[in-house]
Amino acid sequence: MSELYRHIGPNTDVPAGDIGVGGREIGYMFGQYKRLTGQYEGVLTGKGLDWGGSLGRKEATGYGTVYFAQDMLTARGEEIKGKTCLVSGAGNVAIYTIEKLLELGALPISCSDSNGTIHHPEGIDLDTLKLLKEVKRSSLREYVEHHPQATFIDIKDYPEDGHAVWRIKGELAFPCATQNEVTEADATALLNNGVYCVSEGSNMASTAEAVSRLLEAQIAYGPGKAANAGGVATSQLEMAQNSSMQQWSLAKVDKKLRTVMADIHRRCADTAKEFEQPNNLVLGANIAGFRKVADAMIAQGHC
User: Fold this and answer.
1) Between helices 250-274 and 281-299, what is the axis angle to 10°?
2) Which listed residue, of 53, 149, 195, 283, carries a Cα 20 to 30 Å from 7's Cα?
3) What pLDDT does 1 receive?
């Protein structure tokens, strides 16, 4: 990746100070793939819309994380509308988690970046968040300049045993920032502050100790391996569009994403119930995923 960065210069698709792969990097790699192979295939996903990309790919992980939470709540006889939500992060996953929560009538009241956390009890203003992070690529410190009623919690004021965003009262939590962002102390704080549903948008968002704490409490907990599968799922949808030489509407992609996430939740929930741990979607996701791979290997003569 360092060689790639030397060729294309600073990354402009992620906030300053963060390192990641965005549309610009995918464009460079896809261009080099075509140059080296002489082929135009959907081998890379996340491409630009003018050359094989899919509408909804940027939004997919965040949207899917919310859909998974919606399914967990439905299974418990509740709905997402009207719920107070804690969201961490301020990149694509967090921004589009917040967007879908607002669309479904929930109230996201937080977001965070490498400088600190915003707490806005009246609800995160999506336009301001997108302006700061997608246009200006600046710090969330500026958010309070637009919304004085919001509070910015500097990272230096975070508790030693965790993160400020998880010390705010709420009902649903969406870790969308980074790995191990929910510590055992954070999990305890979430539970004490009224959170009864956690849906992970980031990979391995919770430490092993935090996961144990959440499972012991028997709240609705969606591990990242299932809850944040929307991005990968939409990559597959992008490949399907490439194969058929089509570009679907955002509404069609979103509808298919909704179906995919519902199916993932169903598989996890059914498997957990089969093994007599209906509240343990970590177990359900692990066994369902293992079975799918193992069955394919056996059927193809690899075992």
Assistant:
1) 100
2) 53
3) 32
Residue 149, C-beta contacts closer than 8 angstroms, at least 6 positions apart = 120, 121, 122
Q: Which one-letter DSSP state was computed for residue 182?
A: B
For residue 182, the number of C-alpha atoms closer than 13 Å in the C-beta half-sphere is: 33
Question: What secondary structure letter does DSSP report for 80?
Answer: S
Given this model, what pLDDT does residue 17 score?
Answer: 35
pLDDT score, position 73: 98
- The dihedrals phi and psi of 279, each to the nearest 5 degrees, come to -95, 5
Q: Which residues of the chain, if any, have pLDDT below 70?
A: 1-21, 41-42
Phi, psi torsion values for 153, nearest 5 degrees? -100, 110
Per-residue pLDDT, 11: 34
**Continuous H helices in the chain:** 2-8, 23-37, 57-75, 92-103, 126-130, 143-146, 184-192, 208-216, 224-227, 230-244, 250-274, 281-299
